[in-house]
């Protein structure tokens, strides 16, 4: 498996000394310090809507390959591909063949070419893996149904799925008093994860993608449903999968090799902590920091920017507590904060197309320790409302303003004006004040300062509109100041200004005092 080197620099160093500038220049790019230890900025891609390489109106793997330089230039060092295996649906969470690329996306050779190019650029690749259920078109299910109906208990597939002779909640009727578990959809029968033959199949699937596909790990779908209403058992199963995947890699790469696992669990903080404790080094989508009020980013943003009663000091306290709490939940693992994904309303829609909120929310996200995940299109302010249906959260990427944007499933044409209010990638790349370039600035800071991604946040100032905290990793300590106020604020901070991230304007430094515009972030060394 091709891995990144310990240090990757794809950007130029700052052209002028910061002390001469008085603030960060608008186009400066900090030199990156990439460490191969499992910490990355991840970019989630729905292949069917990302980039169309052959003009058939649908995204494909070759299209992803074409845009990998763009992804890396944004500062992302990992990509998560939503399901790519052969499937009858547009979303592909009902897998028909776990060892085949869906023809709509291309071929296995296309996939291998994409992974090889990603690794050349210093990008890790993880793929969505659905192990709680398959498609009812999967050959396993056909063989299972035939064996059950025939009463053929000697058939290998007889126990591949969960079966009942009587009606039960969460089960679907097949035939002849035969019911099968299908908690997501009747077309998605739940696998029997107690069956040793099924477990062997899953290990073989992981071996295929880790060795033949050269992937760096997996995003596991809906881990809390491996065993319904039994998070401890589900978490243990994740741990078992992780041990198996690590063992596969160590056969070829030697002791110490490991696969990156990240699991989906929309649940209570205590349940997520259980997965961290039992997941054998796996990480988890602990929660969306943009979706879980009152503790996280929505309350911080709304408090800071309330039109009548703004309370920036409260916002600062709330954000500090959210960083501490996320570290507590993750324990010794890698936290996974994010703003939105394919299952939630887009952040630009949540904030009513308010550019200040859209930018500042990502600025705050970038300060969390762990691996942040960004859903494709968020960097240009893509819109999408969960209430309209999941396909409307997966609209085509707007690369140029002239693009025709399609919505998967229903294929609503010419949707660019509905989903992209801030212009295309091409347009925003040229605008230093765009959402895209704000995202890029945040990611560059995370890649330049290892302590930002790995350190424990410790507050060093008293309550107020400006939050000041430190993060330390090995010999590096950074000080971060965040102005939650809608007004310009000053704060005394030790250190030299190394990066400012501003919704508008710039942070200035004079005699140990920072002058910070509204909703701005300063990083000092």
What is the strand and helix layout of this fold?
Layout: H1 18-21, E1 42-45, H2 47-50, H3 61-66, H4 68-73, E2 78-81, E3 85-86, E4 97-101, H5 108-120, E5 124-129, H6 139-150, E6 163-164, E7 171-173, E8 179-181, H7 196-212, E9 217-220, H8 231-253, E10 260-264, H9 269-278, E11 283-285, E12 287-288, H10 297-304, H11 312-330, E13 337-338, H12 347-350, H13 355-365, E14 373-375, H14 416-419, H15 425-429, H16 435-448, H17 450-454, E15 458-459, E16 466-473, E17 476-483, E18 489-492, E19 497-502, E20 508-510, E21 513-516, E22 520-524
Parallel strand pairs: 1-2, 1-14, 2-5, 5-9, 9-10, 10-11, 12-13
Antiparallel strand pairs: 3-4, 6-8, 7-8, 15-16, 16-17, 17-22, 18-21, 19-22, 20-21
Helix pairs in contact: 7-8, 8-9, 10-11, 10-13, 13-16
Rounded to an integer in angstroms, the radius of gyration calculated over CA atoms is 24 Å
CATH class of the largest domain: Alpha Beta
Q: How are the strands of the biggest sheet laid out side by side?
A: 11-10-9-5-2-1-14
Main sheet attributes: strand count, strand direction, barrel closure: 7 strands, parallel
CATH homologous superfamily descriptor of the largest domain:
Glycosidases
Overall morphology:
globular
CATH architecture classification of the largest domain: Alpha-Beta Barrel
Number of discrete helical segments: 17
- Distance N terminus to C terminus? 36 Å
Summarize the structure.
With 525 residues, the chain is an alpha/beta fold. It is 31% helix and 17% strand.
């Amino acid at each position: 498996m091709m891995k990144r080197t310990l240090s990757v620099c794809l950007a130029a160093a700052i052209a002028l000394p910061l002390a001469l500038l008085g603030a960060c220049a608008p186009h400066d790019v900090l030199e990156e310090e990439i460490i191969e230890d499992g910490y990355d900025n991840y970019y989630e891609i729905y292949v069917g809507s990302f980039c169309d390489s052959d003009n058939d109106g649908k995204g494909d793997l070759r299209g992803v390959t074409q845009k990998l330089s763009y992804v890396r230039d944004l500062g992302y060092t990992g990509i998560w591909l939503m399901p790519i295996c052969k499937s009858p649906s547009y979303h592909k969470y009902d897998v028909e063949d776990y060892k085949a690329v869906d023809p709509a996306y291309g071929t296995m050779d296309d996939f291998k070419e994409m992974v090889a190019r990603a690794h050349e650029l210093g990008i890790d690749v993880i793929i969505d893996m659905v192990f709680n259920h398959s498609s009812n078109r999967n050959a396993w299910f056909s063989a299972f149904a035939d064996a059950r109906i025939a009463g053929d208990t000697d058939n290998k597939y007889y126990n591949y799925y969960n079966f009942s002779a009587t009606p039960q909640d969460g089960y679907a009727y097949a035939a002849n008093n035969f019911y099968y578990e299908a908690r997501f959809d009747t077309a998605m029968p739940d696998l029997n994860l107690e069956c040793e033959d099924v477990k062997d199949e899953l290990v073989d699937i992981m071996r295929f993608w880790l060795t033949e596909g050269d992937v760096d790990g997996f995003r596991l779908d809906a881990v809390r449903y491996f065993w319904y209403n039994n998070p401890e058992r589900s978490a243990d199963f994740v741990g078992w999968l992780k041990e198996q995947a690590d063992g596969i890699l160590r056969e070829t790469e030697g002791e110490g090799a490991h696969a990156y696992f990240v699991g989906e669990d929309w649940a209570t903080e205590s349940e997520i902590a259980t997965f961290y404790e039992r997941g054998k080094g796996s990480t988890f989508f602990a929660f969306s920091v943009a979706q879980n009020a009152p503790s996280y980013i929505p309350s911080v943003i709304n408090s800071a920017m309330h039109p009548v009663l703004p309370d920036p000091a409260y916002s600062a306290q709330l954000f500090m507590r959210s960083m501490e709490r996320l570290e507590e939940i993750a324990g010794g693992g890698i936290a996974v904060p994010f703003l939105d994904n394919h299952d939630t309303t887009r952040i630009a829609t949540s904030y009513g197309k308010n550019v200040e909120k859209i930018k500042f929310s990502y600025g705050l996200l970038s300060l969390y320790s762990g691996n942040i995940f960004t859903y494709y299109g968020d960097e240009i302010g893509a819109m999408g409302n969960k209430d309209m249906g999941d396909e409307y959260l997966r609209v085509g990427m707007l690369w140029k303003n002239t693009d025709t944007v399609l919505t998967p499933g229903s294929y609503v044409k010419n949707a660019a004006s509905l989903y992209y209010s801030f212009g295309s990638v091409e347009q925003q790349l040229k605008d230093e004040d765009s959402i895209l370039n704000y995202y890029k600035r945040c990611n560059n800071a995370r890649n330049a300062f290892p302590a930002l991604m790995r350190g424990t946040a410790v507050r060093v100032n008293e309550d107020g509109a400006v939050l000041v905290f430190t993060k330390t990793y090995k010999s590096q300590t950074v000080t971060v100041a965040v102005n939650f106020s809608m007004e310009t604020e000053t704060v005394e901070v030790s250190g030299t200004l190394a990066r400012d991230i501003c919704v508008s304007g710039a942070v200035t430094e004079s005699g140990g005092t920072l002058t910070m515009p509204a909703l701005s972030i300063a990083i000092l060394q």
